[in-house]
Amino acid sequence: MNFFLLSLFCSFGYVHGAKTCSVLDYGGKADGATDVGPAMLNAYKNCVAQNPGSTLLVPSGQFLLNSNVALGGSGYTVQIDGTITIAFNTKLAGTMIQWNHCDSITVKGSGKILGQGSLWRPNGDLSKYPSRPRLLRFENCNNCKISGIQLNNSPMFHLTLIGNNNEISNMVVIADNIGETDAFDVSGNNNYVHNVEVTNGDECVTVKNPTTNFLAENIVCHYTAGCNMGSFGNAATNVAISNVHYRNVTMYNSEAGPQIKTYPNNLGYVRNITYEDFTLSNVAYPIALNLYWCPHTKCPDATGTLTVSDVTYRNIAGTESGNSRPAVLIDCIPNHKCTNINFQSVSIKASNGATTHDTFTNACGSGRSGLPAC
Asked: Positive or negative CA dihedral for 19, 21, 25, 26?
């Protein structure tokens, strides 16, 4: 490179170097009353997008979010160190902060996002505001890292991630013990969730369709509806789930443990799944592979062709809630047997001393009494 080009390169790098783009410099106020949404957008458009590698900063302080923020782009950081409270504004819908078609974004910080979910669910009524907003969504985003920020009581789901090669870590989600408060819903290829803690009344860390090569480890779930796969919708959905591994998961007082749940009209496959090193305490359905999961309606006819194969449950111990539910439930679609369902060192007892029982329908495998060999 000649001297002129080198000088030009250095000059360009100097003018367009990475910056810290605080919302306070773009109209934001840490007064808990001024909508920080426009300031976040202005900081992104006029600073972050103009200076590669920059940081969009929400500093310490109290901020109100009363509008949707849609971001995209690549190669920058969003750091939230303050507390962002979602306004109780019934005109809000969709996702409060969303990234679309993004790449190599880091979202981190020591702050919190408070959803005020109980205001959107008066007396536990989930139908009062059916279009209530969600907190965070990454759609068609790759190579992103999300960590640190606490998500609290979203009006609806907390964090949805759709894309490849992403990582979620060191986060806490706390919400009411009620439905439609999913913590982490993830789909795509080569995604990784680890060292997160969830207290809510719905799903903890959940695999959505399609997914391949997913790892979740070092997870703690309180009062949740399980670490689930699915559901995939009450329709002839083409499911493609493979190479999923959950390990080192602790679950307390929960509706379900490791669970695969679908409707009997789903199509496609679920294969090569491992649940390993689970500790369960007072869990209603400790292990469930349920292709007749129809909680809100009568199950449709079993017209699906979904195949489930090579599922391993290893080193799973604890107690079920003692409500006469099966400790292990396997219920698969007729003529499409769930094959090679393997149990290794699984010990589940009823918390009230009752006798637990297992239910196996149209499945084969090894390692559990009553399960026929394939």
From this structure: positive
Which domains, and CATH codes, for the chain? 67-366 (2.160.20.10)
Q: Could you give the CA distance from residue 114 to residue 150 in angstroms, rounded to a whole number? A: 8
Would you state the structure tokens that stand for residue 212, as one six-digit string?
């391949």
CA–CA separation, 158 vs 170, rounded Å? 15
| 344: number of Cβ within 10 Å | 13
Tokens of 201: 């009344």
Distances (CA, A) of 335 to 302, 304, 360: 10, 10, 15
Query: How far, in Å, CA of 162 to CA of 130, rounded?
Result: 23
Query: Distance between CA 11 and CA 7 in Å, rounded?
Result: 6
Task: Indicate the helix (H) or strand (E) that contains 58.
Answer: strand 55-58
Q: Which residues pair with 207 in a beta bridge?
A: 186, 229
Q: How far apart are CA 296 and CA 176, in angstroms?
A: 20
0.85 exceeded by pTM: yes
pLDDT digits (tens, 9 = 90+) for 300-348: 988 999 999 999 999 999 999 877 789 999 999 988 899 999 999 999 9
C-alpha to C-alpha distance for 291 and 173, rounded to whole angstroms = 28
Spatial separation of the C-alpha atoms in residues 163 and 159, rounded to whole Å: 13
- Is 90 exceeded by the pLDDT of residue 354? no
Q: How many CA atoms lie within 13 A of 198 on its CB side?
A: 34
Which residues, in sequence order, are CB contacts of 258 under 8 Å at separation 6+?
A: 226, 227, 246, 249, 275, 278, 287, 288, 313, 316
